[in-house]
């Protein structure tokens, strides 16, 4: 597998920007005689890497229309299902929302370190000129409505979390919208979206950029 992965990385680095179709032709020809499980691993690795340079609609269109690729797929019908399953996980980020797993991860990472997943209900200084409370909700001390030691309710903590996640999610979607206007049309998986929202939540959208 390592030899295949190195070939894929070299191909992507050297020439993929110019010819996605040629890369796919070479890829399918290369794996035509590989064992099924190895073929699956190589395809998942290749297609996921290729999505850095192209989008899933374009890749699927090439696979469905290129005669050389179709010939290779006809030799191993299971290939098509692997391709479709892999690409189906990549969706338009403009339509995505934080998953329940994403919510749980933010609560786990941003909450009370002594009680993972639970919020900190008493406001305290962060040491960088900010005050924090709830699930990592932070504000500049001299502009915050919270005072050190102030207690909030669980419902207030939940509302702060909802507001902060919305800001982070809106920021992530805004980035993709800006890229799309520049002709950079990318799709991502739910896990990738969750990670981007988590980063934006933690260090801000400008930090993520």
Structural class: mainly alpha
What is the alpha-carbon Rg in Å? Answer: 22 Å
Distance between the first and last residues' Cα: 34 Å
Hey, roughly how much beta strand do the residues contain?
A: 5-15%
Could you give the order of strands across the largest sheet? Answer: 1-2-3
Low-confidence stretches: none
Number of helices: 9
Helix content: 55-70%
Question: How much is the average pLDDT?
Answer: 89
Total beta strand runs: 3
SSE run: HHHHHHHEEEHH
Shape descriptor: elongated
The main β sheet shows up as: 3 strands, antiparallel
Question: What is this entry, summarized?
Answer:
This protein has 209 residues and is mainly alpha-helical. The protein has helices at residues 2-15, 20-30, 36-50, 56-65, 67-75, 78-88, 100-110, 154-181, 190-208, and strands spanning 120-125, 130-134, 137-140.
């Amino acid at each position: 597998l390592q030899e295949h992965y190195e070939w894929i990385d070299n191909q992507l680095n050297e020439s993929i920007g110019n010819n996605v179709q040629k890369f796919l032709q070479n890829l399918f020809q290369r794996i035509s005689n590989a064992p099924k499980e190895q073929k699956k691993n190589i395809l998942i690795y290749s297609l996921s890497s290729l999505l850095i340079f192209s989008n899933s609609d374009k890749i699927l269109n090439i696979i469905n229309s290129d005669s050389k690729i179709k010939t290779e797929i006809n030799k191993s019908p299971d290939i098509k299902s692997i391709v479709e399953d892999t690409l189906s996980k990549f969706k338009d980020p403009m339509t995505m929302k934080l998953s329940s797993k994403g919510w749980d991860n933010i609560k786990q990472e941003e909450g009370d370190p002594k009680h993972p997943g639970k919020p900190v209900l008493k406001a305290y200084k962060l040491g960088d000129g900010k005050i924090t409370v709830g699930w990592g909700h932070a504000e500049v001390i001299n502009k915050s409505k919270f005072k050190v030691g102030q207690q909030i309710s669980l419902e207030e903590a939940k509302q702060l979390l909802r507001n902060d996640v919305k800001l982070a999610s809106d920021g992530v979607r805004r980035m993709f919208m800006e890229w799309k206007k520049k002709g950079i049309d990318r799709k991502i998986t739910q896990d990738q979206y969750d990670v981007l929202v988590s980063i934006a939540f933690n260090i801000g959208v400008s930090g993520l950029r």
